[in-house]
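Design review, sub-item: ligand-bound model
Attendees: FS, YL, KQ
YL presented the inputs for the molybdate ion complex:
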Amino acid sequence: MRSVAEHRSIVADLLRPRPLVESPLAEALGLASARDITAPLSLPGFDNSAMDGYAVVAADVAAATDATPVRLPVAADIPAGRVDGPPLRPGTAHRIMTGAPVPPGADAIVPVELTDGSTGTVAFFGSTEPGRHIRLAGGDVRAGEVVLTAGRCLGAPQLGLLSALGLPTVTVFPPLRVLVLSTGSELVRPGEPLQHGQIHESNGIMLASAVREAGALAEQRAFVADDPDAFLSALRSADVDLVLTSGGVSAGAYEVVKDTLSTRGVEFAKVAMQPGMPQGAGIFDGVPIVTLPGNPVSALVSFEVFVRPALLRAMGFADTERSRSVAELTQPVRSPQGKRQFQRGVHDRSAGTVHPIGPPASHHLRWLAASNCLLEIPEDVTEMPAGATISVWDLDD
Ligand SMILES: Nc1nc2c(c(=O)[nH]1)N[C@H]1C(S)=C(S)[C@@H](COP(=O)(O)OP(=O)(O)OC[C@H]3O[C@@H](n4cnc5c(N)ncnc54)[C@H](O)[C@@H]3O)O[C@H]1N2
Ligand code: MOO
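KQ shared the predicted structure:
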């Protein structure tokens, strides 16, 4: 049997990044930056006020108290955005707003709450010290510093930072395009009535959603029956970077995926894993294809273990794995000898504990939907008692 690690690297080696693109920031959410990003300018770009109030020379208001206010003439008004503010002469104050440039000559800001707020002659009821409430140029970012490294996922704060640095675009790895194709003559579209022996199709939306959650683009085709011609024509009609099928890969008489592709560039193997033993991967018609087992839990666990890290790697992400932690089991678990088992679990992060949820069998979608993690049990471990520590893949990060 093939090991989990071997199949992971076979799948990872199949996928290739698309050519880099220069993307407007608004279209880069969730993608990976392709390059280290060096700040073209400093942030803040100029010394500016952190408070609405008055710019002063601190020494001028050193004696101010509630009982003995200091009064200064207001020589200028500096709203945020004013670009022609005059210098401050000692013995005067400038009314200033948050974000406005501190005038040359001033060394502190007094918040409006410590004054009477006047625009003619202002009374100060408290003192200040040099530097108070001034945000210094370069205090956040200095021009020339690397602010984001290649492979970083561009989320809201990262895109905000790039915009603050005056960068309208960013070089990114484009999302991979993935065709999700379910197979099975028993499948019926949700919303349509079932006859005995039929089931509603569920892997399509589940895998397409997992692809989208990973930041790639999913094209979810109507599923195909266990019919080689229909299957091949669905495959050939796609212009994608990866095809992801489910079903038809085990040992039965109507395994449309295995029967059709095993002579056409796809290698099928048993992987020492549960769920998710029957797997296939290869190149068909020049396009990478990964064939997942049809049992719904097997399909999604296989996606997590083999496809998601490969997709993230080909989309340039530095971080390709789910966050892993170690937690204490609150109940014992058993696992088959020789297989890496991934049980569904509920991880209580604040308590540092985890328990398996639902049976290990691979058709229990309900328990998959109720879980927030996978428990990873190594091949050579057949039982673990309550209190043992176990490796956990958190699925909700
Ligand atoms: N004799 C053997 N039988 C089986 C073996 C084996 O080694 N020898 N392996 C078992 C394991 S493990 C798995 S996993 C499954 C994988 O089977 P296939 O990939 O061929 O998938 P199917 O037979 O098409 O379907 C399995 C199961 O999943 C349901 N299914 C399939 N597609 C969907 C879908 N899109 N939405 C919802 N449910 C789906 C299907 O109805 C079956 O119940 O094989 C075992 N058998
Ligand atoms: O490998 Mo199957 O995935 O155990 O149910």
